[in-house]
């Protein structure tokens, strides 16, 4: 069952772009949300995700996920959900593909270090930096800076985690220019994209963590949600190898989460009586989400992953070294901005220098950050395996 057609985002009803584009050349068959998606895919920031950390820093195996593969997996899940609900698939896909563009090198470890070094200038967060990238730092067009995405795409990226009460520097600047109505909930396409992100990393990080030998299977099997799926797979295929059983686990858990999300979202929309996109934004609560039962199980899964994977003792030396690298780079460039490439000397004063440093470092891939640290500060000592 699809949702009422009026609650889906419609290209013809878009609030448009900041810059009019009368002279951008032939349009072809694409609508505005399809063009947004394609602009994201063709951006430099999207290509850089190939060398940015998902869970493991500079992984030594080709089978581990990086930010790029994660973003593609989120897009696949998000588009499937949008199609089942009758939402706009292209807007959903655009939001999924762009949601991690603002990550600095080394994932959340790098983000924490950069935020700490820039607290005097408003801090740093990757969601806000995603908006800064697509609104200012990408420069593929002759008449304006940024990708000039539609209001709906910018809104969805800004509210990736829901309404924003106190935007940090980058997001506040974009909001002042665009007016993203940060206090309200976003479109259902944006809500679906955010949950598709959760579904993807909840499950694919299990795959990577088990492959690396960091995440203990026993800890996962203590969770009723995982144990139910694991036991069901064992009953269907008693002689299945461990590797194939893990892949089946990931696949089945994603299927369960998507099915629950579809049913619960339909229930909430019907209960709220929403009929239009304006109703969705005015609902005062998310309309896309898991049931209460699955919400509790998904939170328990996240708690397990944080305890046994993201904060695992085996990964702490990597996290510490990654934070040291980003912190050292920030301090080096802040102390001597002349070390920045010429293109990053923009504006004057302490705040302008701080933003230049943040923009430059946040754009680095893991390998480039390592190479700049070795050139400016000294050796980087990341454990060989991870």
UniProtKB/TrEMBL annotation:
Segments of skewed composition (Basic and acidic residues): 12-32
Official protein name in the record: Deoxyguanosinetriphosphate triphosphohydrolase-like protein
Single GO BP term: dGTP catabolic process
Annotated ranges, domain HD: 67-202
Coiled coil start-end: none
Protein source organism: Sphingomonas kaistensis
Keywords: Hydrolase
Presence of the UniProt keyword Ion transport in the record: no
Region of interest: Disordered: 1-32
Family statement drawn from the similarity comment of this UniProt entry: Belongs to the dGTPase family. Type 2 subfamily.
InterPro entries in UniProt: dGTPase, dGTPase-like, dNTPase_2, HD/PDEase_dom, HD_domain, PHydrolase_assoc_dom
PROSITE patterns, per the entry: HD
Pfam family, one: HD
GO molecular function: dGTPase activity
């Amino acid at each position: 069952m699809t949702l009422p057609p009026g609650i889906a985002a419609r290209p013809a009803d878009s609030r448009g772009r900041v810059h009019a584009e009368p002279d951008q050349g032939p349009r072809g068959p694409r609508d505005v949300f399809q063009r947004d998606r394609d602009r994201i895919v063709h951006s430099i920031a999207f290509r850089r995700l190939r060398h940015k950390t998902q869970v493991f820093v500079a992984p030594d195996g080709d089978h581990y996920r990086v930010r790029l593969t994660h973003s593609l997996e989120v897009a696949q899940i998000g588009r499937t959900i949008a199609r089942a609900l009758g939402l706009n698939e292209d807007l959903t896909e655009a939001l999924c593909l762009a949601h991690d563009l603002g990550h600095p090198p080394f994932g959340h470890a790098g983000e924490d270090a950069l935020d700490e070094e820039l607290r005097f200038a408003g801090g740093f967060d990757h969601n806000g930096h995603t908006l800064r990238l697509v609104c200012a730092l990408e420069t593929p067009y002759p008449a304006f800076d940024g990708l000039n995405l539609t209001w709906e795409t910018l809104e969805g990226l800004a509210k990736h985690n829901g309404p924003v009460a106190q935007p940090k520097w980058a997001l506040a600047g974009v909001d002042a220019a665009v007016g993203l109505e940060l206090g309200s909930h976003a479109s259902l396409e944006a809500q679906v994209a955010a949950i598709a992100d959760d579904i993807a990393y909840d499950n694919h990080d299990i795959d990577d963590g088990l492959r690396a030998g960091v995440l203990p299977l026993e800890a996962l099997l203590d969770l009723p949600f995982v144990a139910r799926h694991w036991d069901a797979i064992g009953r269907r295929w008693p002689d299945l190898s461990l590797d194939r059983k893990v892949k089946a686990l990931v696949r089945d858990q994603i299927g369960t989460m998507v099915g629950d999300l579809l049913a619960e979202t339909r229930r909430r929309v019907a209960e709220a009586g929403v009929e239009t996109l304006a109703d969705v934004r005015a609902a005062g609560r998310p309309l896309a989400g898991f049931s209460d039962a699955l919400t509790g199980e998904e939170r328990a899964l996240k708690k397990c992953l944080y305890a046994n994977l993201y904060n695992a003792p085996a990964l702490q030396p990597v996290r510490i070294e990654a934070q040291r690298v980003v912190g050292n780079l920030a301090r080096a460039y802040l102390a001597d901005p002349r070390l920045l490439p010429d293109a990053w000397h923009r504006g004057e004063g302490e705040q302008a220098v701080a933003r230049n440093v943040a923009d430059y470092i946040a754009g680095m891939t893991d390998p480039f950050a390592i190479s700049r640290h070795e050139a400016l500060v000294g050796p980087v000592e990341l454990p060989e395996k991870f």
